[in-house]
Design a protein that fits this description.
By secondary structure, this protein is α+β, with helices and mostly antiparallel strands. It is 36% helix and 29% strand. It is globular, with a radius of gyration of 14 Å.
Amino acid sequence: MNIRQVDEAIRLIPYYRNDAVSLAWYQDVEICRQVDNQEEPYDLDQLHRMYDYLCAHGQCYYTEYQGSLVGDVSLCEDGEVAIVIGKNYQNQGIGRRCIQAMIQLANEQGLPAVKARIYRFNQHSRYLFESLGFVKIAEEWYQLDLPV
């Protein structure tokens, strides 16, 4: 896996253990609720299990914005996309550009579709994914069919 340049401000850096930075995102209870619908922050073991799973079943990247790691994004073999952007960097278009990069990666890999699990209370994520063309296919699941 190589670094993926998204634009002049964003690069996707292949995952490597960096607990000092990444654990902070998953210590935020609101982010944990958005991502996993859980009210408890991650501990280090849960963080490692999550990243190990994402790396074993697809491609996982840190999102680097203007030289700082601000979140992560992944594309699993089954086309599932997952993203976390740290609170201080949300609502700046970073997530949108990262999801677009994952759509491009899925196209390069020949996947027929990408999908995302979005909990019903997470209106911000639902709006983001729908604005990129994702449609609801099941309770909490949104999908974007890719051209063949």
